[in-house]
From TrEMBL:
Protein name, entry field: DUF58 domain-containing protein
UniProt organism field: Marinobacter nauticus (Marinobacter hydrocarbonoclasticus)
Amino acid sequence: NSVSAIRIQDPLEKALPSSGRFAVAGPDGPIWFDASNPRFQQAWQQKIETHEQRLADCLRASGVFSATLSTVEDPATALRLLLGPGGRIG
């Protein structure tokens, strides 16, 4: 048997907008951030890069093939293309 992982990713997970105030859902309600703050942008980008590297290392060490789908894609079409006629990724 083999294990595959399909990641669902929102564009905001990769790059924040360059300006404006935005809210994301938090455990106790919305958390607001100012996207025009360069220190916040830098900290966000560093956190994303670290997370992506750790996840890639974990999947690779476990022998898990992964693919990423974006929330901007039509899920049915994206899965059909990803899985192919055999219904498997990798």
